[in-house]
Amino acid sequence: MPCLRPTCGPQSVQQIELSDRPLRVGRSTSVDLCLNDQWVSRYHCEFRREQDGVVVRDLQSTHGTYVNDRRITVCKLDDGDVISIGLNRFVVDLDGNAQDQTDSVHGLRRETAGELAC
Fold this sequence. Notes:
This protein is mostly beta strands. It contains no helices and 12 strands. Strand 10 (82-85) and strand 11 form a beta hairpin.
């Protein structure tokens, strides 16, 4: 299953699975992945699996969503792409096989992913 692997940010999470359900990211407690970061909007971006791959869409955030250091509004993701959301960084793993699946987290609804650990 495709996933995101944090390289800077919620280090208590080893991977975030991208299931068939959209994954909303932001500072609000009503999103799926809550990031405690002043540079992240309440409703910042959304990841969605589609027929031809995984897409990230910025939800009109104040500071933007970046893929490989380029600000995007919507972008189809490739394996190894680096997603920047505020001060948080995630690497896209489309195969989801690089690490033990037992440490994965899917949908951190009403949970905070953690403090920044960069």
